[in-house]
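Notes from the 1:1 (GR / supervisor)

We went over the backlog. Supervisor wanted to see one worked example end to end before approving the batch request, so GR pasted a single chain during the call. The sequence is below; no edits were made to it. Supervisor asked that the structure be written out right there so they could see what the output format looks like.
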Amino acid sequence: MEDKTIQKRQIAYKVRIKDLVMGNYIKNEGWQPNYIITPNNLKVSRINLIGVVISVDDNPNYKGFTIDDSTERVSVRVFEETSYISNIGVGNVILLIGRPRLYGSDVYIIPEIVKRLEDSKWLMVRKLELKDQVKEDINK
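Structure output shown during the call:
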């Protein structure tokens, strides 16, 4: 009988962009995913962010945009033709699930799912969800 290894999908952690930018990026070899160790010692290889699009990039090497969640901002880059980011514009509130990557010293996100949120109240909901992380920063 064949020995098949089942690969589980990593959890898309709800994090602040500040935690990604200030975290320590760990690069693995082989099939092990790269990840960021956040200041709260959370090992994150997939992220779940809610933020506001503050700029749209039209670089010849990639399409993308920059989002801000009021703690920091991060670039989102897509290196292949996709239609799911064509309707993203400045001022849109979006839900983003993706993988953090590092180029030089800059952290950026490769998106898996990008969804426009019609109600900006979701930003407040996410801030309340991550309230404990903010308290930990204040206590440090």
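Supervisor's comment: The mean pLDDT is 85.
Batch request approved.
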